[in-house]
Design brief:
This protein is of the alpha+beta class. The chain has two domains: 105 residues, Glutamine synthetase, N-terminal domain (Ubiquitin-like (UB roll)), CATH 3.10.20.70; 327 residues, Creatine Kinase, Chain A, domain 2. Helix content is 38%, strand content 20%. It contains twelve helices and 16 strands. Helix 1 runs antiparallel to helix 2 and helix 6 packs across helix 10. The protein is globular, with a radius of gyration of 22 Å. It starts with a helix and ends with a helix. The mean pLDDT is 89.
């Protein structure tokens, strides 16, 4: 933190706080599941925090430290400093993301941001820069009482243009709030299900985008809360309609050149891109517990609602797990792949880390890309899929965890601390869910059995 560049960044933060009259600075980080955590400091503490970090009790954060080794340090990353579009009293409020360190200065193994940074370092060592552009889907509801069915705010459908309804107004306000703090939005629209909306973020490097996703989720919820309603990123909150995904577009650059693009290749898809896709498909079943980490995630990954359930790829087939969008010949830099499994409730740091690791493994080992899927997978039965050599994604969280547990790639990417804790926590979630008697069972069985 003593380099001239770091000092300049710190000075910019300190100067901005003073000039804008910021009275509180929130230090943000996440636990292993991606739950946002924060504590606030005043400007008087900010300079010391930027230089030395702020110590706190890690044993109070689920999945962080054991009691006997509890203290860790939150070191702010000055590049992530932003004035938030909300005020605290009459003063402005700022936030800054932190990396978590042990008190001896070594990276804390339970910090998800470190997991992604470690994987990005491996890519940087190969002269790769990894970029991401997610499409966040979510719902607005009039209530958040878990004892009552969620009540949508509108009955709109895909791309529907509505007049002065609350949910569309909330989406517009959210986009303006994001633009105000420097988060560029590429598209915003109504999605297919009632009261379901989507905000697409303009691509940037994967670490910045993971931080951005955490910020966007909070802004969406805060704008809804200010207007007396509730926004949810639950993957499948309503029966009979599609769930919320986070289809994410990825690309690799090398020396400012998009190496997924090859002007002379079939449909301009480079050999490197083909290896990357092959790595994703090869490891897809192993990383699904990370990209889809909740019991409810697998209520979305079912046939009939456009969510991917088969491990396959295609250029313009939305039933495939990996899609390669068609690009304009005049924009080779836009060549990218779209991974369609993640949902918006995932931990974006871990999600991006395992996706990158899987793709890099494909490049490293020259994994052969299977044949492109040119037909609608949802129309094939089990025998036809088996004959075509197309495997399904895990059908439940338990099945996904079993695949993850066997994965050397996921274990190496996450590190022992995160890997072991994540499995313990998620198996516990599955066991609790398995013991729960649902309304479906009561309605179906109680009157007749």
């Amino acid at each position: 933190m003593n380099t001239p560049a770091a000092k300049n960044q710190n000075n910019y933060v300190l100067r901005t706080v003073e000039e804008r009259g910021v009275r509180f600075i929130q230090l943000w980080f996440t636990d292993i599941l991606g739950t946002p955590k924060s504590f606030s400091i005043t400007p008087a503490e900010l300079e010391d925090a930027l230089e030395e970090g702020m110590t706190f009790d890690g044993s109070s954060i689920d999945g962080f430290s054991r009691v006997q080794e509890s203290d860790v340090s939150a070191l702010p990353d000055p590049k992530t400093f932003q004035i938030l579009p909300f005020q605290k009293g009459n003063s402005e409020l700022a936030r800054i993301f932190c990396d978590i360190y042990n008190l001896d200065g070594t990276p804390f193994e339970g910090c998800p941001r470190h997991v992604l940074k470690r994987t990005l370092t491996k890519a940087h060592d190969l002269n790769y820069n990894f970029f991401a552009s997610p499409e966040l889907e979510y719902f607005y509801f009039a209530n958040q009482d878990p004892t009552k069915p969620p009540k949508p705010l509108d009955n709109g459908s895909y791309f529907e243009l509505t007049v002065a309804d609350l949910s569309s107004d909330l989406r517009k306000r959210t986009v303006l709030a994001l633009e105000e703090i420097g988060i560029p939005v590429e598209y915003a629209q109504h999605e297919d299900a009632p009261s379901q909306h989507e905000i697409d973020l303009r691509y940037t490097d994967a670490l910045t985008m993971a931080d951005t996703i955490m910020t966007v989720r909070l802004v969406i919820k805060e704008v809804a809360h200010e207007n007396g309603v509730f926004a949810s990123f639950m993957p499948k909150p309503l029966e009979g309609v599609q769930g919320s995904g986070m289809h994410t577009h990825f690309s690799l650059f090398q020396d400012d050149k998009n190496i997924f693009h090859d002007q002379n290749a079939d449909k301009y898809l480079s050999e490197t891109a083909r290896y990357f896709i092959a790595g994703l498909l090869y490891h897809a079943h192993e990383i699904t517990a990370i990209t889809n980490q909740w019991v409810n995630s697998y209520k979305r990954l079912v046939s009939g609602y456009e969510a991917p359930i088969h491990i396959s790829w295609a250029h313009n087939n939305r039933s495939a797990l990996v899609r390669v969008p068609v690009i304009k010949e005049t924009h080779p830099e836009s060549t990218r792949i779209e991974y369609r499994a993640p949902d918006p409730a995932c931990n974006p740091y871990l999600c991006f880390a395992v996706i990158l690791a899987a793709g890099l493994d494909g490049i490293k080992n020259n994994i052969e890309l299977p044949q492109e899927t040119t037909y609608n997978l949802f129309e094939l039965n089990g025998k036809e899929l088996l004959k075509a050599g197309i495997r399904p994604l895990p059908l439940t969280l338990e099945a996904a965890l079993a695949e993850m547990e066997k994965s050397e790639l996921v274990a190496a990417t996450l590190g022992d601390h995160v890997f072991e804790w994540f499995l313990r926590n998620k198996y516990d979630e599955w066991n609790q869910y398995s013991r729960h008697v649902t309304n479906y069972e009561l309605t179906r069985y109680l009157p007749t059995l």
